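The freezer alarm interrupted the setup, so I double-checked each line after restarting. Inputs confirmed:
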Amino acid sequence: MFLQGSFSTISAAALIQTLCNERRAAQIEAWREKAVARVCLDEGFIIAAHCEGRDGPEAVFRLLDWPDGLFRVVRLPNNMQATMAAPPEELLLEAARRRDECLR
Amino acid sequence: MFINWALGEINLKIVYYGAALSGKTTNLQFIYARTPANLRGRLISLKTRQDRTLLFDFLQLEIGKVANLKPKFKLYTVPGQVYYAASRRLILQGTDGVVFVVDSQAGRMAENEESWYTMEQHLIELGHDLNTFPIVVQFNKRDLPHALPVQELRRQLPIDGRPCFEASAIRGYGVFDTLKASMNSVVAAVRRAV
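Predicted 3D structure, all chains:
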């Protein structure tokens, strides 16, 4: 474990963007009440995600909706299988678009 | 601004802001098509109602290093429709400069004014000083028959002394003049800051 904190200190969106900007190979593990999430990053891309029973982009959207929670950033597991390769901006903007259209 | 020490790059963000269908996306498509493939990243396109949100990044080698770092520019458009306020605010976070794209057509001034007002509100909320923040104005669609005179556009929008360029983004006219002015003003602001 090399970084941990609360989403009240840094948002999930900012955390993901910072790690991707630095092209870190890392796994974010997050939890809130009984929910858990995992987002894997490598070379500036989100390469896998799981949150509350969802995988892929939908899992990232679900995590971005969390109002609070705790996280830790750990080394990317050696046997990690990439299931996607999405630039973080693409998923963050899509999440914002969905939010705007829901509020409409 | 984001400094990537590992790559020796300084990432600078320019947002193309303006009313829906003012030509923001056309600007970015033209720039992307004429940027060498080895210097640009992937074009990301998100469909919103009426228009699209585009973004891509590219290394700008002509401008020279900034604080001994290679400048990489990220260009974004915002979705223009009124109800995409949260998206626009998210996109403006961390931006180093704005290109405000004006639709020159008579009958579009209300949308231009509304868009200008929301841009100012977002920038103020994000802590920017409007007197010093790099904003470049593009009067787009100058080729259309119902385009208002530039003096009229200047009179109706609070442009003050900001750099302005006439353009027809669909024909490519004025697109790079606008971009270069924005990049130069952003780099000048960064150089003043460091």
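Quick read of the result. Chain A has one domain: 3-103.
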